Amino acid sequence: MTLLLVTLAGTATMISPTVAAAAEKTVTFASEEDSYVSQAGPGKTHHTVTWLSVCTTPCDGANASERGAYMRFTVKDVPDNAVNVKMTLDVQSVRTTDTTLEVRPVTGEWTADTLTFDNRPAVGAVITTHKGLTAGGTAKLDVSSAFTGNGAYDFALTSPSGAHGVLHSSRATAGQGPKLSISYDTQAATPSGPLPFAMPSLAALRGSERKVFAHYFTPYPLSLNNKAGADDYYTKHYLTPTGENGKHAAYGGLLRDRPVPRGVLSGDWQLADMKKEIQTAAAAGLDGFTVDVLSLTSAHWDRLQVLIKAAEAVDPGFKIVLMPDMTSLKTDAATLAASMAKLAASKSVYRLADKRLVISPFKAEGQSAAWWQNFMKIMKDTHGITVAFVPVFLNFPSNAAAFAPISYGFSNWGNRSPAGQSGIASNVAKAHGMDKIWMQPVSVQDERPNQSIYDEANNTENLRLTWEKAISEDADWIQLTTWNDFSEGTQFAPSVHNGGAYLDISSYYLTWLKTGKAPAIVRDTLYLTHRTQFAAARPTSGTQTRFMAPRPGTSTPRDTVEVLSFLTRDATVKASIGGAQKTYAGQAGLQAKTFPLAYGENKASVGAVTVTSPWQVKKDFAVQDLQYHAVSSGRK
């Protein structure tokens, strides 16, 4: 397949997926009130004349003669989910001049019958400009950036240069006065849901040979003790420095984020939670979970069995890949084989089409290739199960040759920073050169308070880069690392701080991977990501004494707000970064635009589509938190 890669070094990046064709509707409104003011007659009204004047001073050779026009429109009947909105102010000229017009929003109160130069209302910054007027011609001024939906729009026309411009007012011959036109796409606005594209059916996605799994970490299910969010274990013990008798106080608490809280459930709440997680993952297009098998007893083993039971109940097509964790499992091959065989009795545990059971151990090099070969022999001889071995390495190049004779495929745990992704192409090529499949890790970020380390992900750059390289380098399988390891801050699962944004973005790339082409963008969607504190800042209160530092070799830490836009066509994007207003030319397709981080609130909009981050950037805080927060315009 052909993939246009993103250039990641600059502040704005774009790729060009398919943009859906759309039927455009236009509504036009005549001005309800309009008039002009003149410095030459500072107390005079002009609400009865058939023209509007706009002029800088000196005007017509006279000093103290500035003139400006004011007009009001009421917009209605534009649907709330309109996309690709373009708003145009049309004014018709009485004569030909070289006048430069400036359009500004009116921020003060006014009425046409009392408007004078002396009481003229305050106006805002210039929205757009237009130079040159032609007698009988219409000047079309793009004021799309001012669109906020239905309601009143007041504009002022001023001039910084050129001759005296004279325009028709609403009292001129019918149809010659100012008009405000709003065009928008109806076909693109029709589909519902949070995504910028139309998700293919689950059956169509699962028909692809390419598979996408997410790494499930049993220590962090949706709930640990079936209590409401304010009183549950996450809030009381993991998110606070005083939790678990203060054992996490030095680094400010074990976690910085958590699963979305829920209320108290009756009945088998653990099974209900697992069902919900599977439903969420399946709705995003995932084929299953690679489940970290931390132990063969205890709560983690019990949760794994509940997860398998949940898959059987809600979606038999959702597969569980067994991933023995060789950093924690200290057992012999026969014991491990017996446990894996027990789990393999479920139809939800993943097997290839030829019935081979997929075993994909984490840090496979924790045991030798010979040890694993013996494990597979036991599985076959004792339990009648043939294994398709897909080891996940911490160091793939050093172990590939030794493990090649016993492996169906390869993977590695990967990195969480753009600076660490240069080896993806060579890894895939090496695996394919050995006639093995490759499972590519795709990641968001990594933040570990209890290990005093973090990776710089550059907002969504690492996420996009790992997905794009997986597609361009022809990876066979994907492992999202991770679904829910909140202790490492790598979660894709909907959480308090990401709201499902990272999963939504991944659904777009997942569809691209499985269908072989970028999905058509059918609705404008914005994703906003930023930290809530500067990378080098330290808490101004609290008791934290151990702090996270950048992992050696990670990307240089940066302080940025990113607007990631999926647009059906070119449009003006507005952003407010810490209260400072920004605008830029948004391009059809997927585009990332970054701005320097600033204290305060962050938001962005394109037409009527808006996204506002609920997390403010603060100077004063009690706990260091270097994860990126994310919010989507598609999820309210």
Automatic annotation (TrEMBL):
<dbReference type="Pfam" id="PF24517">
    <property type="entry name" value="CBM96"/>
</dbReference>
<keyword id="KW-0964">Secreted</keyword>
<dbReference type="InterPro" id="IPR005197">
    <property type="entry name" value="Glyco_hydro_71"/>
</dbReference>
<keyword id="KW-0732">Signal</keyword>
<dbReference type="InterPro" id="IPR055372">
    <property type="entry name" value="CBM96"/>
</dbReference>
<dbReference type="Pfam" id="PF03659">
    <property type="entry name" value="Glyco_hydro_71"/>
</dbReference>
<feature type="signal peptide">
    <location>
        <begin position="1"/>
        <end position="22"/>
    </location>
</feature>
<protein>
    <submittedName>
        <fullName>Endo-1,3-alpha-glucanase family glycosylhydrolase</fullName>
    </submittedName>
</protein>
<feature type="domain" description="Carbohydrate-binding module family 96">
    <location>
        <begin position="26"/>
        <end position="183"/>
    </location>
</feature>
